[in-house]
Amino acid sequence: FLAEVRLVDIVQGRDRCGAHDPSEMWANDSCHKIQESLLSSASGYNNYRGILNWCVVMLVLSNARLFLENLLRYGVLVDPIQVISLFLNDPYSWPAACLVIVSNVFVLVALYTERQLELVGYLVHCINMATILTFPAAVVLLVPSVTPAGGAFVLGVYTILFLKLYSYKDVNMWCRELSTAKAKKLFNGGNRTVCYPGNLTIRDMFYFVFAPTLCYELNFPRSPKIRMSFLLRRLFEMVRCLISWMIPVIQSSMKPLEDMDLSRMFERLLRLAVPNHLLWLVFFYCFFHSSMNFTAELLRFGDRQFYKDWWNSETVTYFWQNWNIPVHKWCLRHFYKPLLRRGFSKIVSQSAVFFLSAFFHEYLVSVPLRMFRLWAFMGMMVQLPLAWFVGRFLRGNYGNAAVWISLIIGQPFAVLMYVHDYYVLHYRQEAD
Amino acid sequence: FLAEVRLVDIVQGRDRCGAHDPSEMWANDSCHKIQESLLSSASGYNNYRGILNWCVVMLVLSNARLFLENLLRYGVLVDPIQVISLFLNDPYSWPAACLVIVSNVFVLVALYTERQLELVGYLVHCINMATILTFPAAVVLLVPSVTPAGGAFVLGVYTILFLKLYSYKDVNMWCRELSTAKAKKLFNGGNRTVCYPGNLTIRDMFYFVFAPTLCYELNFPRSPKIRMSFLLRRLFEMVRCLISWMIPVIQSSMKPLEDMDLSRMFERLLRLAVPNHLLWLVFFYCFFHSSMNFTAELLRFGDRQFYKDWWNSETVTYFWQNWNIPVHKWCLRHFYKPLLRRGFSKIVSQSAVFFLSAFFHEYLVSVPLRMFRLWAFMGMMVQLPLAWFVGRFLRGNYGNAAVWISLIIGQPFAVLMYVHDYYVLHYRQEAD
């Protein structure tokens, strides 16, 4: 009778799982139940790890075809001398490299300032910070042998240093605000944490300078050991990205500049919207995943959250809060929250953060190109009304699509503006 | 003192969340903790819904550019008469449409066989099933005005019908195996379920024929009502897929055939590996998501599981078990489990399923093209060693990448073989 009930069950479409008796097997076979398709948003399903792998496979495959074609047609494309010439004009003068080496002076000044008395120290600190931003900019603008790529690299290094030293000074100030005696009493236990004056060493300072974070802490979380295989995989990714993506695309984007033909360059760059976006994605992976994880592994730096799930962002704000976590953390800790504490409203503080970000974007683009057009600044400030619009009118997957479109279309537009102006400024004049 | 402890907390890198007092806000700001990056497989994170949206946005954008370019260059490309000519040679003879209409005869035969006595019924049933497979194949092979596209469509319809009627007969047989009296007693409650002889109606039969499933049940789960907006969105997707993807790609793949130049066609098809894969993905979405959901919504058919998360499949077996759920369900219920019950081992039964699938793949390709090359058959049978290899040697994301590569590379290879042979058979002879 039981077997019959089971038989009735399947025929009527009910399920009783778990029958392993082979004679009952065909009976344990309910067919349909009410459920949504996985791709319907109603299903709430969102495990698409495979789609990410698909993207990587497609990138590698289409890249391999291109690579083979180029290799057959032109031989080895990557010319190391040409790559170096992006950064150097004159092989006997290395202004960018010198500037990077000089940056150590500012690091040491910041360290020794912290060791000195408060009032003079504060003045020296202010001068130091101002110099970090103005000195390399002045050198880049005045020394003609600095190339745009070299200049951008140097200014990037100095900007990161500026943010790091600002954080360093803030945290040490907070430490001084504590009565150090009490802090010592609290933390002289055996758990090997460092207390305020004990952290002012050259070793600690340079660990912070090289660590993949912008926010200073006296005791960073450390991973137990360096995993060799992890290190090698990240290194392999970096080399692969650089060789098979960055360099060919940069070289091919140099070609229209060499042709000096405005209309062709314009058309070409419009066509480059999608490659530009792919390049940005590869850059993101190479920098924020591969190289930062590489550095962190090497330094046994425990906190590997360099980005969050910005690919799912349904508002522009979410994207900006999650794609670059080190900068976001810095802005929150040393800019946004201090502003809130001083009584500014949330909207004013948020706008101030965007304004600061816009300033640095402009600084990193205009100075190396030696032209001030405010496109990068505008590009960042436009994010504010865009964020309002997307947050107000679009939800869920539509909001996500809007964020993607703004990334794919917006970025090459700004790039196009600069390339166009750079061309007009440098080559049109020569042609006349 | 408490504020000082909090201050010590941030300086030492500890967190106490939840302080909303603005004066303590800067203190509630722990910076770093040990954690992995999201893209590291160690993080176990897998919400990539945004990547799916990215793919859709990229497809639509690149498609829009192509569409605009073509529109500017050639005007409206989609010529309905040309599309129809894929299915029809002679506008006064519609063999494919006639065959589809004739298929109703077999449905009615299957229904009336179930109403008749057992022994004669079984014989009629066997003849009926055999005719469903052989009759359309014979017509397609013998009537010269059947085009390959029309033939494939007809054979597809008849194959689906074959699987459905096989399931219909099986389930009704299971019902007869029950003593129907007992079943009636059990299920004559008021919950409106139908019992065995009561289901043998024309209405019930045709609901099953049109329902998006291959497995018969007496009482399908039904959704409460037809959602108009859902229906329209699926319809819109189907039309968009058809107009902006399927037809242009099919037309452009017809061109090399018209050129009758073997070397160019070969090169072109090699280049079409990625477009072919994209087309397959669009076909998958259009057929398994849009059109099946559309039909299900129209028929208030509740079970919308037409596919599972095959995109995450880390073994070939997982892919074949999850990409086409209606066929997989049928194979499991009416072929694999009956074989197991008859005492065959798991491996033999699995191989038999692949063999059956290979037979139908070959049937659906060879007969409409009127040439028997066994490429489709081999393509399916090759999956067995491939599944063994991937399952044995590759894990996680590497296995997933292997499945993707076999999809991207394997499919166009088989297509290429058929196109090449078709060309040699039909055009080389004419050229000589």
Which two protein chains have the largest interface (Cβ within 8 Å of the partner's Cβ), and how many residues from each? A-B, 89 and 90 residues
Radius of gyration of chain A: 28 Å
Distance between the termini of chain A: 99 Å
Tell me, briefly, the overall form of chain A: globular
Helix content of chain A: over 70%
In total, how many beta strands of chain A? 0
Average predicted local confidence, pLDDT of chain A: 78
Q: Number of DSSP helices of chain A?
A: 17
Structural class call of chain A reads mainly alpha
The arrangement of helices and strands of chain A along the chain is HHHHHHHHHHHHHHHHH
Binned strand content of chain A = under 5%
Query: In oligomeric terms, what are we looking at?
Result: homodimer
Poorly predicted regions of chain A are 1-29
Largest sheet of chain A: none
Subcellular location (chains A, B): Endoplasmic reticulum membrane
Membrane topology (chains A, B): Multi-pass membrane protein
GO molecular function (chains A, B): diacylglycerol O-acyltransferase activity
Family (chains A, B): Belongs to the membrane-bound acyltransferase family. Sterol o-acyltransferase subfamily.
